[in-house]
Amino acid sequence: LHSGHMQRVVKASTRRGKKALEERSAKVVENDKKILYVHGSTCNQLVQNAFKDLHAMTKPQSVIFSRKHDYRPFEDFLPLENMSAQQDVALFAFGSHSKKRPNNIVFARMFDHHLLDMMEVGITRITPMGEFKNEKNMLGSKPCLVFLGSLFTTNADYLHAKNFFADFFRGVVVDNINLAGLDHTIVFTATEEGIFLRHYRIALKKSGSRLPLAEIEEIGPSIDFTVRRTKWAAEELWKESLRVPKELKPKKVKNIEHNDMGEKLGRVHMVPQDLGKLQTRKVKALKRRPEEKEGKAKKARADDEEAAEMEE
Questions:
Q1: Which of 53, 80, 122, 173 could hold 221 in an S-S bridge, CB 3.0 to 4.6 Å?
Q2: What is the DSSP string of 171-206?
Q3: Single pTM value for the model
């Protein structure tokens, strides 16, 4: 049971339906998260233009629903949960506009098709992507995300916002990245006035050394957000969403550790050693000369004679 509703067990009657259900079922390695942009019944043209630009940044993992929906996520989030289950979507951006909350966007994230957290922001300024007359990034390329400002580490709402935006804009999850394919960066700056989003194209040029020279050029959109209402996940639900399957956990190797820098450290156990019996390399320069050996022998004999006299 969840929120007073009983979940219906769906069984496939065709091969195509069975394949679709398998695609949506729980996996050890989950599918890449999809994003759905939804227009509210009062969504104005400014928010629609912002969605077009954000959709251009997150394609092909995102889709825009042009038909307007009369939803109010903070009052009733069940319609979004139902849409998440139907479309197999984990991330939402819902646009609306009113006198009380102008140019409004609600960002929502799902876990197991149920609401995990929500954040409401307002657009205070926007420069659309179309006003930047320059070359854009490649479709589907993975962005470099940069978060600037101490508020991202000291303010609770901004800390959650950082985690959400990283999840929203990260693109496809990969193990390795080709430097040549890293062609754009999204910069978030946290201030007391709000969160500023800037989008730049990265141009790699020859520098005369092994590492290329990186130059950035703003390609839009340029959006200023102000944070409004928030609904963050409960601690238990948050921990459950971060749980890693046993199959993906690294197997613990005895006496092997990793430090904070990711370096591998090993511990070797040895039996106690007698350093007196340690075989060292004999170097000719360290050998005693005949005179030194004779002098040492004479001193030993003198010490023995002196000891014998004292005994007498």
A1: 53
A2: -S--S---GGG--EEEEEEE-SS-EEEEEEEEEEE-
A3: 0.74
Q: Residue 311 carries which side chain, given as an amino acid letter?
A: E
Q: What are phi and psi of 257, to 5 degrees?
A: -135, 165
